[in-house]
Amino acid sequence: MKRIGVLTSGGDAPGMNAAVRAVVRKAIYHNVEVYGIFGGYAGLMSGNIQKLELGSVGDIIHRGGTILYSARCEEFKTKEGQQQGIEQLRKHGIEGLVVIGGDGSYRGAKALTEQGFPCVGVPGTIDNDIPGTEFTIGFDTALNTVIDAIDKIRDTATSHERTFIIEVMGRDAGDIALWAGLAGGAETILIPEEKYNMEEIAQRLKKGHERGKRHSIIMVAEGVCSGVEFGKELEEATNFDTRVSVLGHIQRGGSPTAFDRVLASRLGARAVELLINDQGGRAVGVEKNHLVDYDIIEALAKKHTIDLHLYKLSKELSI
Ligand code: ADP
C-alpha cells in the first residue's frame, strides 16, 4: 500500500487530532503517503481531499476538535453514496482508509470494506460506547471536564445546602455519568443500563441529610431522562432545594488529557500498521492496556457493556 486516506466522522472528540497526527506520521515513517479527507463522509463524496505532510499535523496533538472537520451525512448510508466515495478514493490513488469516529462511522467503514475498499476503524467518541475497546479516544478528557464541573458545583452546593442534579452526555451508554460520578463522589448515579427507584433515592438523600450532609450530587445520563424532569420528581419526593446543571457541549471540547493523547497515538499508529499489512476491515481498540483488533463486522456485532462492578462500588461508597 503506497497511499492511504484518513477521515474523522460523527461526533467530534478530544484526541481525534492526536490520532490523525499518529496516522500521518506513522504512514510517512513507512514511506506511505497520506491524504486527509475533510468533512467526514460528506467530504469523501464531494472529493474534499488533500495530501497531508509531516508539517500538516504539527502543533495539533494538544488541540480539541478535529482539523479534518466532521460531518453527519445521510446520503452516505446509501450504496450510491458509498460508491461515489470509493470513486473519489480511487481517483486520488488511495488504497486504504482510516476512519476515526463512533459506531455510525464504523458502519460506513464496514460498508466500504464490504464493497472492496479496505478500511480500519479507530474508536473516537466521548461516550465510550464502542464495542471492541475498553476505552475510546475522548472519553477520559470528557470525564475530566465533568469532574471539574462537579467540583465547582460541589462548592456552591455546600454553601447553600442544595441538591444538585448534573445531566451529562450518554444517550445509550452511562459511562460518563458512572465514571465521573464515582470520581466526583456523587451520591446517586442514573445510567440508561439500570432502572432507578425514586423512593430509594429519596430515602438515601434524607438519611444523608439527617447525618448532617450539606449537599448532594446526583449524576443523570441524558439517556435516562432530562435533568430538569428528574429534578421536579425529586423535589416532589423530598422537598429538598434542588438545582439542575446541564453540562452539554462543553463535554466535547478542550485539550485532550495525556491518557487520550497516548491512546490516540497508539490506536492511530496501529490502524496504519494493519493497512500496510493488508489487513483492512478491522477495528482497533485497547483491552487490559494491550492493543487489539477485530473484524469490523464482528466488532459492530458485539455489545458495549458498562462496568457494573463500578456501578455497585459507587453505591457502596456513597452510603
Ligand atoms: P458516530 O460515528 O459518532 O456514531 P453517526 O452515527 O452520526 O456518528 O455516524 C456518522 C456518519 O457515519 C453518518 O452521518 C453517516 O454518514 C455514516 N453512517 C452511519 N451509519 C451508517 C450506515 N449504516 N452505513 C453507512 N454509513 C453510515
Helix content: 40-55%
Structural class: alpha/beta
Strand order of the largest sheet: 3-2-1-4-5-10-11
Largest sheet descriptor:
7 strands, mixed
What is the CATH class designation of the largest domain? Alpha Beta
> What is the CATH architecture term of the largest domain?
3-Layer(aba) Sandwich
Question: How many separate structural domains?
Answer: 2
For the residues shown, what is the average pLDDT? 96
* Bound ligand species: adenosine-5'-diphosphate
CATH fold category name of the largest domain: Rossmann fold
User: What are the low-pLDDT stretches, counting only 5+ consecutive residues below 50?
Assistant: none
Number of discrete helical segments: 11
Terminal CA distance reads 57 Å
Please write the string of helix (H) and strand (E) elements: EHEHEHEHEHEHEHEHEHEEHH
Question: In percent, how much strand structure appears in the residues?
Answer: 15-25%
Coarse shape:
elongated
DSSP strand count: 11
Radius of gyration: 22 Å
Features:
alpha/beta; Rossmann fold; 7-stranded mixed β-sheet; 11 strands
Could you please describe the fold and organization of this structure?
- This protein has eleven helices and eleven strands.
- It has helices at 16-29, 40-46, 79-91, 103-114, 139-160, 175-184, 198-210, 227-238, 258-276, 296-301, 308-317, and strands spanning 3-8, 33-37, 49-52, 96-101, 119-123, 163-168, 188-190, 216-221, 242-246, 282-287, 290-295.
- The longest helix has 22 residues, at 139-160.
- Residues 9-11, 41, 72-73, 76-77, 101-105, 107-108, 111, 125 line the site of adenosine-5'-diphosphate (ADP).
